[in-house]
């Protein structure tokens, strides 16, 4: 499910935008002055999939509409009702008499919906105040932070509402990856707590590679145990042409897997007519065992080729199963990941997220990809992201201040200042 269009009306009471993926393509770049809502335009979609309803109750806007390519429409509407003040909650520091309605519909009618009201948000705030009393008194837990960590708070209020549950069910169809501008400080990995972000990324990659390698060894053991039985079945010998064709196709893959530490051999036996039957079984088993790595291989290849194009100064960076990311100086001395520059760390984290954490058909939101990067790395980065979008069949919405990042591709760039000025003149 992809987005056809995404529109925001009167964001911050002022700005109205309409991002047309159907016309501009799967990659759209947002640019414009500070304060025009670039980051907020990304966060709206991110917070929506996190079910951060409090964010929307605090946000100033009129309408948000997302149209999908399956003719589904998601609508969020914020309204003030001056005459509907609730005396019970009039002292609460939330906007009085405000409602925010959410709906998911098709051309055939409404599927799911719910409404945030002042009284419901009052109940949410009361639960927050009650529960934080029993938490660490030396640390102030903000309400939004608490609600993200305890999403069941909303379920206690809306959980029995069938239309609310249906809305949330359909919302799960949206897969969103948000890469924030302060990604160097974020710790997304659950493998390493209280670690630098780059080490968390390395630990996550090591975990993924380790799981695939374990599956490979299991398949290898199974293949070796059955090899004698296969030979005794007198299989038809493979032709020299077919064998050489398969060997030529597999050899680069084997060499890459060897370089990444995932197999312990880097060559494939050459054809010998006297051993044709044995080589037939050998090639069959080789194809079977290496197929375990297919999905991981494609991602590692894109990751490695992207790293090579960056030409890290006097460094060689390779994925490895025991440490995730291995960094070597040109004299082969190992370098600690945290010794990399902020720009180098930033680039590795970005590449990892975009290649390994992006599900097929996702919406990828990137805030200020130019952070800590030299101009040389910014040039061509947008084309690289377009390649990633095709690789994962995803859509990208990117916020940037960098003309170097855009690189003249104004046909896929949406300038918030220019488009808002056009709206004002209409």
Strand-helix topology:
Layout (H helix, E strand, L loop, with lengths): L2 E9 L3 E6 H4 L2 E5 L6 H12 L3 H6 L4 E6 L4 E8 L17 E9 L2 E8 L1 H15 L10 H7 L2 H7 L3 H10 L4 E4 L17 H36 L7 H20 L16 H15 L3 H17 L4 E6 L3 E6 L12 H15 L6 E5 L7 H4 L2 H12 L2 E5 L3 H4 L6 E3 H10 L1
Parallel strand pairs: 3-12, 3-13, 8-11, 11-12
Antiparallel strand pairs: 1-2, 1-4, 4-5, 5-6, 6-7, 9-10
Summarize this structure as a short list of keywords or feature phrases:
six-stranded antiparallel β-sheet; 13 strands; 46% helix; five-stranded parallel β-sheet; single chain; elongated; 16 helices; 426 residues; alpha/beta
CA-based shape? elongated
Radius of gyration, whole Å: 27 Å
Q: What is the rounded distance between the termini?
A: 33 Å
Number of strands: 13
Q: Give a quick account of the main beta sheet: strands, pairing sense, barrel closure.
A: 6 strands, antiparallel
- Please tally the helical runs, counting DSSP H or I stretches of 4 or more residues: 16
What's the average pLDDT?
88
Q: What is the H-and-E element order? A: EEHEHHEEEEHHHHEHHHHEEHEHHEHEH
Q: Level of helix content?
A: 40-55%
The structural class is: alpha/beta
Beta content comes to 15-25%
Question: How are strands sequenced across the largest beta sheet?
Answer: 2-1-4-5-6-7
């Amino acid at each position: 499910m992809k987005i056809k269009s995404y529109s925001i009306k009167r964001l911050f009471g002022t700005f109205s935008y309409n991002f047309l993926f159907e016309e501009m393509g799967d990659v759209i770049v947002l640019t414009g002055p500070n304060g025009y809502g670039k980051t907020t335009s990304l966060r709206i979609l991110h917070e929506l999939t996190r079910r951060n309803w409090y964010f929307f109750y605090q946000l100033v806007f009129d309408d948000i509409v997302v149209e999908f390519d399956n003719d589904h429409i998601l609508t969020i509407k914020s309204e003030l009702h001056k005459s509907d003040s609730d005396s019970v909650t009039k002292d609460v520091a939330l906007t009085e008499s405000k409602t925010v309605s959410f709906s998911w519909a098709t051309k055939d009618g409404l599927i799911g919906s719910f409404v945030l009201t002042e009284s419901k948000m009052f109940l949410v705030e009361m639960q927050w105040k009650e529960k934080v009393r029993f938490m660490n008194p030396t640390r102030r837990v903000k309400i939004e932070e608490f609600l993200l960590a305890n999403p069941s708070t909303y379920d206690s209020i809306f959980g029995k509402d069938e239309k609310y549950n249906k809305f949330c069910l359909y919302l799960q169809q949206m897969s969103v990856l948000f890469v924030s501008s302060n990604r160097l400080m974020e710790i997304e990995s659950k493998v390493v707590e209280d670690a630098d972000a780059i080490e968390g990324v390395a630990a996550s990659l090591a975990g993924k590679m380790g799981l695939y390698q374990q599956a490979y060894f299991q398949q290898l053991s199974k293949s070796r145990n059955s090899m004698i039985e296969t030979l005794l079945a007198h299989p038809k010998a493979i032709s020299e042409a077919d064998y050489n064709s398969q060997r030529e196709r597999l050899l680069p893959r084997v060499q890459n897997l060897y370089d990444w530490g995932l197999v312990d051999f880097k060559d494939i036996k050459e054809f010998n007519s006297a051993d044709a039957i044995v080589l037939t079984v050998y090639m069959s088993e080789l194809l079977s065992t290496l197929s375990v790595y297919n999905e991981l291989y494609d991602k590692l290849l894109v990751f490695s080729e992207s790293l090579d194009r960056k030409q890290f100064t006097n460094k060689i960076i390779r994925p490895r199963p025991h440490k995730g990311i291995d960094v070597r100086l040109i004299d082969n001395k190992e370098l600690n990941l945290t010794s990399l520059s902020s720009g180098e760390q930033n680039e590795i984290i970005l590449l990892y997220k975009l290649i390994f954490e992006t599900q097929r058909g996702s919406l990828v939101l990137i805030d200020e990809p130019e952070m800590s990067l030299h101009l040389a790395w910014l040039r061509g980065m947008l084309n690289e992201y377009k390649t990633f979008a095709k690789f994962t069949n995803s859509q990208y919405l990117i916020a940037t201040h960098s003309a170097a990042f855009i690189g003249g591709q104004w046909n896929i760039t949406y300038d918030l200042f220019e488009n808002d000025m056009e709206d004002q003149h209409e």
